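Q: Could you fold this chain for me?
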Amino acid sequence: MKRYLAIIILILAAGVVSFAQSPEDYFQTAAENNPGLLAKYKEYEAALQKIPQVSSLSDPAFSFGYFISPAETRSGPQRAKFSLVQMFPWFGTLKSQGDVAALRAEAKFQNFLDARNKLWFQVASVYY
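A: Sure. Below is the predicted structure, expressed as structure tokens.
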């Protein structure tokens, strides 16, 4: 009987010992499960993807035209025409657009950090 009583006391004592979670664990869990915070981070990632797009040349345009009845010009009849066009911006424009996009991405990141800090404040106020 004493043996069974000792085993029951050991089992109950082992079940009582538990460790409390730190606030950092709660911060991480709240950040991973908050859809508003995840949306802010995705906005930041999208802004980062725009930087190489705005700082590169636009795509060239190719066009082809076929005349059903040949057009007469001074150099002879024309049956078709081809054209290839590439727009070149003024000097420094692409670099400036890239800088603006980088600054907008930095602003999106600061918005994300602000939302994260507000969330952490809410978690800390509930924890303490």
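A (continued): The first strand starts at residue 61 and ends at 73.
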